[in-house]
Design brief:
The protein is mainly alpha-helical. It has helices spanning about 1-10, 15-30.
């Protein structure tokens, strides 16, 4: 879903970094 949104709408590197940190937090919290 996130990857699809990224491919559809151009994202700045700042937004990309923010999303990556969010995903990292989600993965770390689920483990």
């Amino acid at each position: 879903l996130v990857l699809h949104a990224l491919s559809v709408k151009q994202t700045s590197k700042k937004e990309l970094a923010r999303i990556r940190r969010l995903l990292d937090e989600l993965e770390g919290g689920s483990k």
